[in-house]
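## retry 2 of 3
previous attempt timed out at serialization; input unchanged, resubmitting
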Amino acid sequence: PGPETLHIQRPIMAVVTGIMGPATLLLLSLGLVARVDSFDAAGVHSSAGRGRKRTSMLRRRQHDLGTGGRIALNLFPPKAPKIPSSSQERDGLAISGVKEALNRPRDPTFPLVEVDFPPLDALNKLGDGSLRSSIQVEDANVAFAHKLVKGIFTPFGGLGLGPSVSLVLSSSAGQSLAKKAESKVKAAKIYSVRGGLPDEVKGSKDSVCVFLTPSSQLDYKEARQLAETGTKVLLLNGSFKDARSVPGNATTGYFLKPLTYNSSVAGYLIRAYPSRWTVLDAVSKRELGSFTDEEILVPMTNTPDLRASAGLVAKAFDERAIQERSIL
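## retry succeeded, writing output
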């Protein structure tokens, strides 16, 4: 069966409503029944349905249920996106989104997943070029990799019932990172792109390969080729990407990008799969807008175009400033 949830057509729904109308209304009110399930909203379709023309979520919302539309039984609707209040909360949201993406990627034949967020709370340390900050970033990425591997490998009380996980170091990784990974990430087998990956992980649908901070075209090439064999691949906080590094049929499991305006963080672009890409105001925490993959990704890539998101944040910032001046 494909990844789409069971869609109940109107004739069947009429019978169900006639039998248990109040219960159906309760499900509707609780959001447990929706016109389109969360994976449709994220652009996930079965191979049989890929050829259908995709209708925007805005248009879907405007259609009334009684005008020939469909509804979907969605017992686990995606949670509303939120700005994480701590690194612990962020890690939990990221791991949840990654697991969803690994299990239900946008393209089932290409299970390549990305996760991208600032590893340090202090954003000014990320690009200052100091050795101390570089070490802190490295430590934070290894610490998250440890949590991620545990979340994938031991989902049921540490019983080790999940898939086997390999941690793949960049071809440019130094000995310091290798030692930290071996010391901290105990539940994963450690490999290096430089040393090559064993045949046992290639084409294995029961394993996950986590590429830790890939940064060279060789890293991305290895990840793409591995995903093409059917192995689940995760790119963790990659850098130095170009238009060919990550193709457009990859899946973003989690994305968190602070958006600055007037030299301060004024909002965030967040994506926790399978939810839409969402822009949130940094002060009010309210949603300013949202996008599907097709609407926000640069064509042929898995990289979001930030211009529309930055514009929404700037507009909200200016409107708030005008309101505050009017009060004075």
